[in-house]
Amino acid sequence: MPTMSLPESLESVSGLDLHMHSTASDGALSPSALVDLCHARGVTHMALTDHDTLNGVPEASIAAARLGVRLLPATELSAQWRGMTIHVVGLLPTGASATMEESLAIQAEARVTRSEEIARRLEAVGLDDALARARKQAGSERPLGRPDFARALVEAGVVPDMAAAFKKHLGAGKRGDVKAHWPYLSSVIGWIRESGGVAVLAHPLRYGLTRRKRGLLLDAFAEAGGEAVELISGFQNPDVTRDLARQLLERGLYGSLGSDFHFPGGHLAPGSMSLAPRSDLPPVWCHPRMRDFAG
Fold this sequence. Notes:
Strand order of the largest sheet: 1-2-3-4-5-6-7
Number of domains: 2
Oligomer: single chain
Order of helices and strands: EHEHEEHHHHHEHEHEH
Strand content: 5-15%
CATH superfamily of the largest domain: Metal-dependent hydrolases
Number of strands: 7
Helix content: 25-40%
Largest sheet: 7 strands, mixed
Shape: globular
Number of helices: 10
Structural class: alpha/beta
């Protein structure tokens, strides 16, 4: 069953989601179950963007081919910029490459070291046997992320819910926010470009930056070879979104859209996000390397 072609503007698009997670990282649904849900919700074009891995792509590809959903291999890579953890989505139209496989091995090692450090820090605030508790929450041998530790904190009764876990212990600047093991932003962008992909700055409005500092991040991202930015990530303030669109236009960047979906039952679902404002910002699927995906 053929899929629809995507329009050449951000504000008129539907049936697309370029930022979602499965059980290959910290999502709740298997890759095939995620594709099933996307199809049920009318998503015709999707990217699977698990953290620092492409392991879910083969399973998702089989389900997508069965249902006529156009799947873009992708991954969300963690990086450092000015002492902050920044996420970059690598959209990979030609799939995995030797360069990307080597890069993901580096990221996996960094995640192991980081999880051991997070566990050590959380044990100091009352989460006994933190690494084993987080592994239990993950339910597999995949690399651990902060959500696994957050669920462990909740299960142990250290905090009442996930929001409190991040607010008290795992959010930006908190004891469990370990970032020193990530590569620099320029290195991550280089990996994506060398793999024939398009580097997309993930959710720039979530880093708690002033407009000026966000501009500095966008400058550094573009100077390192980054080409697109998530104009929409889930639901956000329309005035701030319009301002972000202006910042991207000023720098000649493409715009991307994604829900950052992790689990059913929350306020986000595949394909659910704020509408893009009217703008001359070109969509990332109009990038020359993305034409086959756009249809």
